[in-house]
Amino acid sequence: MPSLVEKLLRPERTPPAPVHVDLGPVLLVGTATWFVALLVTGVLAALGATGWTPAVVCAAGVVIGLGGVVWARLHPTTPPAQTTTSENPPLP
Q1: Residue 53 — φ and ψ, nearest 5°?
Q2: 6-51 pLDDT per residue, tens
């Protein structure tokens, strides 16, 4: 059995279980935000208040976001089967 000093110097920590998150809604909100920014910067550029560079950046954000949405639909996250052990009893 390790001494108290060894336990304090080298604590044993078990990492938490990974959290499974559905990225589809997150990516949709982000893409919608880029789209709104694209509309705003497009109007500002059309009125001459700013250049077209911000609108191009927002358009790139929309394209990348749509790619992320497609990827999230093709790669759904399904949590692994719940296994119960004596260390990890099932949650109520």
Answers
A1: -60, -45
A2: 888 888 888 888 888 888 899 999 999 999 999 999 999 999 999 9
* Phi, psi (degrees; rounded to nearest 5) at 75: -125, 70
Residue 43 identity: V
Domain ranges (residues) in the chain: 22-74
User: If you count them, how many residues does the chain have?
Assistant: 92
Task: Supply the pTM of this predicted model.
Answer: 0.67
Mean pLDDT (the chain, rounded): 86
- C-alpha distances in angstroms, 46 versus 37, 49, 53, 78, 84? 14, 8, 12, 45, 61
Could you identify the residue written with the tokens 């004596």? 86
